[in-house]
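Milestone M4 deliverable, item 7.
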Amino acid sequence: MQSVQKGVNRVSVWQLVNLILFIGAFGYAFYLFARVVYARYTYVKLGRQADFSTDMKARLHEVLVQVFGQKKLLKDKKSGIMHVVMFYGFIIIQFGAIDLFYKGLSPGSHLPLPAYPAFTFIQELTVFSVLLATLYAFYRRYVEKLARLKRGWKAGLVILFLTSLMFSILMSTAFELVWLGIEPSWALPISSLLAMPFAWMPELASAVMFYVFWWMHALVVLTFLVYVPQSKHFHLLVAPLNVFLKRQDPPSKLKAIDFEDESLTEYGVGKIEQFDQNQLVDLYACVECGRCTNVCPAAGTGKMLSPMDLLVKMRDHLTEKGAAITSRSPWMPAYAFSGANAATEVAATKEEDGSYDYPVQLIGDVITEEELWACTTCRNCEDACPVSNEHVDKIIDMRRHLVMTQGKMPAEATRTFQNIERQGNPWGISRKDREKWKEGLEEGIDAPTVKEKKEFDYLLFVGSMGSYDNRSQKITWDLVKLLNHAGVSFATLGKKEKNSGDTARRMGNEFLFQQLAMDNIALFQKHNVKKIVTADPHAFNVFKNEYPDFGLEDVEVVHHTQLLAELIREGRLKPVKEVKERVTYHDSCYLGRYNEEYDAPRFIFRSIPGIELVEMERNRENGMCCGAGGGMMWLEEDAGVRVNTARTEQALATNPSLIGSGCPYCLTMMSDGTKAKEVEESVKTMDVAEVLSLSIDFADKPAPVADGVH
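Output delivered:
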């Protein structure tokens, strides 16, 4: 105790000086931090007011699962575990940091905590674990060189910060032991080992070294504090907020444009401040982890689009334009970023619609048209994002601006819109031919129209693919045959049927979509439709999740795989014939990631005798897009490898005899893929309904319909 007291007396003057310096440093750092955060807050506030549902239970559950449970991060086990160690380690270490600062301001004492030795032991293990995780992060980025991770000096700065913080904690504690003459202890195993080589040091020298590392820790903490909101690490603060604010709508449900609003002079988003505030929060939440780009079918096949770069470029543009509009510097301390702060000197004039005229254009200068038209809207980027960022709605909003405000779009898109407007289908085939598919039905198989059958349980929405496309018509024939055999009461719209509008909406023509939606809803209501079944996942999604915004109420929408699976469970369809095929199933994005239906198609395949079901490496929620979504079915791919070819290669890696699908678009793309790989003779491509039809003994009398079951 005498040794401890002697050390305390010697530093009494230093304590006062140290306290003043400490308060000054912390005060200045927190001032800079607050300025930077507030500046970015004002930039986000430039956006339009966002809708906010008050379902707090769902929001808190999302935070619990994604922030504290790190669910999406753990999809990649290696980096996920590393991040969990850093995340929880950083939280635990903050208590140790308070204790360390307390020791520096009041030498010879510590926080009055119960079981203090246990507290220090946990701190030591946590610090060591975080240090190992940091070293592993360095290895992943600079030695293993993961393609999705950036490797510039900025990317490595946080690794330097974390390593310095952990090292300074251990070394300051080690020199404290030497300075105060404290014996090595189990409660400080690592620091005790580090102290041993310095046991010879005089008291004053060890005290000086303690404060060298103590101040090193303090300054690194404060520098990191100021640096965080000015870098991608702003996600440490914004990501939990972003997860909490995440839209509670169905995934990537698009917002309707009110065309009756006469104040609207532009449609879609052509300026960064025309996004809503929640969309802008996304930009600052981005971690730049590259997981979105890593799974993007466009990026993976050599297209210009990188979902991560898209958000990063938009974030930087928001920061620069926000600084110009608000005159608030995005960088602190301002004197250290004189060049970067030049953005505040750029003129930004407010216009009548609330947006600002600015020399740098969002579409063209920041985001290219090629990027916007490369997206298949598959949502794999959003599913992979650990901070709940949404990319697709931003891309569609910008497409809307190109199409409806600027009138700029690929020539194929123009033709597609004209064909849908004139004939109700993307090919421009006559409306009168919409019912021609019935000519291929077997004798005795009935597919009545709503005109012929006034009372029915299900409206079978055939869709443009099922009506006009020769290959997809075979799916319609088998589906109708199965529904007949199971005794399902259904009818079709016949020649009255129109396109669902999904293609037009995803390609940015919201006006055409709304026309189709209103016409279809009026038709559904006229014929008292209560249930809709369709083999088209795009129509399924738009009817189920987006038509309700336009007046479709009390209508149950099911995909044909869901209905067929239900009929098998009820015994109304009995797969009995053996179908000896090795099947790999390709998940449709609009059935899977948009509507979380992965099991119904697989249940059907497993119910068929002789089927061996094998999974591709990328399956279910991580299944790769076929390349047809977002209107890409009608656009030419003129860069890199075709998406459908890449997906077909993944399917062929399972050595299948049959590639299964639950979507006519996917089936077309996979069929084209097998032709491109010259394996169409040995590897079949079939819809779930077609394969099931092979296993049904249609000669058997159909199973009776149970009471109350339709």
